[in-house]
Backbone:
């Protein structure tokens, strides 16, 4: 049996909680007997994930599901509260020095808001060349050439070098963000809703850019989005997240053809489809719960059309229901 | 890949040109006050710089002063042929020279105080915002502590301990003022800190000091600079007040405040010039700085950028 | 009572800058019947939101509606003074904004705001107004409506706030609702809920709806007719089925083809080259010309007039042929 290659990124039972630390005043009040308000945001609640080299994993979910937080944990921007993050087989938090730098630079993030992701005070050439200078990745003399190369790879003329971010459009800013990541020669890109803030016609350009870069450089992507259409187009595998947990994961084709989890089914049903006309909407009931107070058992049970008593008590594990297709639902056991 | 935006060949013009009235009003708004106040400030700075060469007399050199020349009215003739254009004070000092030197002190105190307080306060605020947690809490409690005291009171106490002198005045003012800047910088930095370009800088492995100084700081300077321009005038007034009260500059090196104080007793007896001219000079200085500060604020406002 | 509720002719809204007055909306014509849902589609900078605001006189300086007729049930809204418009707004014409916090006053309770909306336009007792408010909240699916009337806007989630905004819009049984991108900032499942409510409202009350959006998918499912805007003009309009399955204007076709849902997964998406022009850099002639794959010389000289073809119309000298790529 052929041994599987080590996944680029592996997450084992990763949790990330944001705890509200009580300040001095509250601690004093606590001494006097008043209970401390420990509001905790349960952003990621036990995620296992393995991303293979060269694949595009789409991560889909709505607001509050923790997908952005998960992306940042993968990129090393947040430290996980529990669990392990492995980069090429090594524990990320045990990496030091050059190896740690290799991890940080090797996993680059593309951010959602093109405007906020560029330093308004820096010109494009400064934004692109800073990492090379700080980490001495390239001789000074070669830097301008590398900047021009990166610009042309993302489809921008070298005249953009001298511009500030407020002098270029949203789609172009996103290209600069991608170019900035390219400068440090990453192998893995976490794309956090990279096209959500762009117009449809610009979206297409950026999606094509992502696909071209993948072909040329063999990048691995974790593509986070709420837009199922985009995810379907670009991903090999798709994972659906709800309130901090992955509820279903499989190949893109399988998810869209044979969605198993009721949440996935609801999502697919809700996505406006250009081919459908005059549809009568049948909405899914209830609000998205807040990650401050996730429901007990299966977090989806308050909104699930097929809820059973066991769903309120026990969280279903991710089970293999078909080759390469996992889903976390008690219905699969019933 | 080809560039993505082909330039349109030939564009359409606007529907109507801006009506004359509007255009003129716009020009007016742009020109006189900014130009006027910039020119006034430049004159002041030049004056301040060349005072030693300009002034007919060095008011600090006690040997120059002649008590017999004391309290002469404006435009009285000098012993050696010149004119006391603004009169003399009770010690025979030429008011014009004294004012020129006094302006110099005021401007120096104002600018130095603000420069130092801004630097110290901004750094403290930046660190507090970026590091957060315990460090933030401790620094901010220190800031709150300092801001809890009335400015003049603290300055008076400090100066009574330190003694008189310009450097001590500046020190006292900086100690009292830096806390404001810390608070302003911290609140701005807290907003910017969560923006994605800061995350991107961390993602590129930049050390914390670099992110703070090169990424956060430049984008948080706006409100601090705005406050600083207001504070220049405030520092000048504060120094004048302290000198007026007698705890600021030494008697031999009078600033505008001290000059006003000196002349106070003579106001009712009719020798108005000893207080009034320094007072007017102070007023003009503050006015110019405030107006310029206003214009600077407008131009720093990102909506106009 | 005629069938035709709203007729817009030659609407032109300009923004005054130091360099002159630039038209964000440059000659817009459309008609809306009672109970009809029109999807007004365009990308950023197309002028779609400005159109919506211009209809009810909500354009403030430096913008100004400089030309056109907006005939609502026989009355030209542009001829009305502020008082006349005020009587119509919230009463017969309601608006829903993208950010529900624009509709809702954060320091007033929901009930107070809703009752104010009713009592400004009709003499109704407090008790009756409150009952109507409660019923409106129930109709948009807000549980425990009676106690919710005493809540503040910040106590609601984004989706719920938008539903409250819809409830307020419906309160006085308007003839027309103008909705400016109300679900753009909401999640897909919440959007589904909102669309469901809107559809119900329009069907039961026979309210006409102008749904301003950039999302063709929503328009496909919700609207009866669609108008596509580019650079301040409507470039194509007609029944949804016809336009989306056989677009005539190259821009409409470009938009449809760049949507990932259409293409084969993994294939390169068709993209419209270039970018939409900014307000001050609109090309002469047809504004889409620099980006159009079919442009001819005439396109640069003069902007095309409206060509009508049955119930649809478009502005193009080289429209896509009849047998076009089906969507």
Residues:
């Amino acid at each position: 049996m052929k041994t599987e290659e080590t996944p680029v990124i592996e997450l084992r039972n990763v949790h990330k909680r944001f705890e509200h630390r009580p300040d001095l005043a509250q601690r004093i009040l606590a001494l006097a007997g008043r209970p401390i308000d420990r509001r905790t945001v349960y952003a990621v609640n036990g995620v296992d994930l393995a991303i293979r080299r060269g694949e595009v994993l789409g991560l889909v979910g709505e607001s509050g599901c923790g997908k952005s937080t998960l992306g940042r944990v993968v990129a090393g921007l947040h430290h996980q509260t529990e669990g392990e993050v492995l980069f090429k087989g090594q524990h990320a938090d045990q990496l030091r020095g050059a190896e740690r730098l290799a991890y940080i630079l090797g996993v680059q993030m593309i951010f959602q808001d093109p405007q906020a992701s560029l330093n308004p005070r820096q010109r494009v050439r400064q934004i692109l060349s800073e990492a090379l200078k700080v980490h001495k990745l390239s001789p000074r003399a070669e830097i301008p050439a590398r900047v021009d190369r990166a610009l042309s790879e993302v489809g921008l003329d070298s005249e953009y070098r001298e511009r500030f971010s407020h002098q270029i459009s949203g789609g172009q800013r996103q290209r600069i963000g991608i170019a900035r990541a390219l400068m440090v020669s990453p192998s893995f890109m976490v794309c956090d809703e990279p096209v959500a803030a762009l117009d449809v016609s610009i979206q297409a350009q950026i999606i094509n850019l992502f696909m071209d870069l993948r072909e040329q450089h063999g990048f691995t992507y974790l593509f986070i989005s709420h837009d199922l259409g985009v995810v379907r187009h670009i991903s090999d595998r798709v994972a659906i997240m709800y309130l901090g947990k992955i509820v279903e994961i499989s190949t893109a084709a399988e998810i869209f053809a044979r969605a198993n989890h009721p949440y996935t089914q609801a999502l697919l049903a809700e996505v406006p489809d250009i081919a459908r006309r005059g549809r009568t909407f049948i909405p899914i009931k209830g609000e998205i719960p807040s990650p401050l107070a996730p429901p007990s058992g299966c977090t989806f049970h308050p909104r699930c059309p097929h809820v059973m008593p066991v769903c309120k008590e026990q969280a279903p594990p991710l089970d293999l229901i078909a080759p390469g297709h996992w889903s976390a639902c008690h219905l699969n056991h019933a | 890949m080809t560039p993505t935006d082909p330039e349109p060949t030939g564009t359409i013009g606007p529907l109507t040109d801006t009506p004359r009235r509007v255009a003129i009003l716009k020009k007016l708004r742009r020109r006189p006050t900014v130009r006027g106040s910039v020119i006034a400030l430049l004159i002041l700075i030049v004056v301040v710089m060349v005072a030693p060469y300009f002034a007919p007399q060095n008011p600090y050199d006690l040997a120059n002063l002649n008590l017999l020349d004391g309290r002469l009215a404006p435009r009285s003739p000098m012993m050696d042929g010149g004119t006391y254009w603004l009169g003399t004070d009770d010690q025979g000092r030429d008011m014009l020279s004294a004012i020129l030197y006094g302006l110099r002190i005021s401007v120096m105190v104002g600018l130095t105080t603000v420069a130092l307080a801004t630097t110290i306060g901004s750094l403290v605020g930046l660190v507090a915002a970026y590091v957060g947690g315990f460090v933030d809490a401790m620094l901010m409690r220190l800031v709150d502590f300092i801001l809890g005291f009335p400015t003049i009171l603290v300055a008076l106490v400090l100066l009574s301990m330190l003694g008189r002198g310009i450097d001590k005045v500046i020190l006292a003012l900086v100690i009292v003022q830096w806390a404001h800047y810390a608070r302003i910088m911290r609140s701005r930095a807290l907003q910017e800190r969560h923006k994605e370009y800061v995350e991107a800088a961390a993602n590129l492995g930049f050390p914390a000091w670099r992110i703070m100084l090169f990424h956060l700081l430049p984008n948080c300077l706006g409100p601090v600079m705005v406050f600083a321009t207001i504070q220049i005038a405030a520092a000048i007034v504060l120094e004048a007040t302290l000198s007026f009260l007698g705890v600021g500059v030494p008697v031999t090196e009078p600033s505008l405040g001290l000059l006003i104080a000196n002349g106070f007793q003579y106001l009712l007896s009719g020798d108005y010039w000893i207080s009034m001219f320094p007072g007017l000079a102070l007023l003009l200085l503050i006015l110019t700085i405030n107006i310029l500060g206003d214009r600077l604020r407008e131009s720093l406002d990102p909506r106009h950028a | 009572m005629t069938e035709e509720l709203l007729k817009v002719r030659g609407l032109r809204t300009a923004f005054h800058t130091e360099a002159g007055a630039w038209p964000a909306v440059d000659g817009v014509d459309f008609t809306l019947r009672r109970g009809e849902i029109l999807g007004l589609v365009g990308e950023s900078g197309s002028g779609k939101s400005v159109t919506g605001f211009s209809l009810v006189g909500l354009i403030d300086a430096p913008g100004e509606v400089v030309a056109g007729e907006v005939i609502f049930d026989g009355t030209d809204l542009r001829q009305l003074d502020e008082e006349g418009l005020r009587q119509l707004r919230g009463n017969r014409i309601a608006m829903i904004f993208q950010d529900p916090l624009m509709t809702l006053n954060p320091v007033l309770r929901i009930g107070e705001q809703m009752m104010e909306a009713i009592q400004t336009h009709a003499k109704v007792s407090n008790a009756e107004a409150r009952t109507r408010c409660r019923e409106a909240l129930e109709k948009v699916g807000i549980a425990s409506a009676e106690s919710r009337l005493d809540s503040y806007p910040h106590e609601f989630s984004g989706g719920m706030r938008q539903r409250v905004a819809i409830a307020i819009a419906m309160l006085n049984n308007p003839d027309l609702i103008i909705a400016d991108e109300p679900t753009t900032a909401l999640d897909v499942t919440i959007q589904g809920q909102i669309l469901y409510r809107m559809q119900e409202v329009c069907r039961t009350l026979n309210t006409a709806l102008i749904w301003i959006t950039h999302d063709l998918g929503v328009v496909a499912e919700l609207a009866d007719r669609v108008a596509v805007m580019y650079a301040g003009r409507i470039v194509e309009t007609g029944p949804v089925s016809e336009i989306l399955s056989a677009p005539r204007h190259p821009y409409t076709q470009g938009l449809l083809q760049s949507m990932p849902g259409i293409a084969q997964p993994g294939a390169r998406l068709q993209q419209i080259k270039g970018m939409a022009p900014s307000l001050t850099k609109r090309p002469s002639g047809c504004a889409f010309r620099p980006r159009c794959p079919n442009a001819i010389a005439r396109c640069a000289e003069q902007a095309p007039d409206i060509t009508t073809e049955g119930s649809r119309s478009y502005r193009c000298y080289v429209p896509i042929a009849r047998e076009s790529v089906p969507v």
Remarks:
- The interface with chain A takes residues 1-4, 133, 137, 195-197, 199-206, 210, 215, 218-219, 305 of chain B (CB under 8 Å).
- The longest helix of chain B spans residues 208-245.
- Chain B has a mean pLDDT of 79.
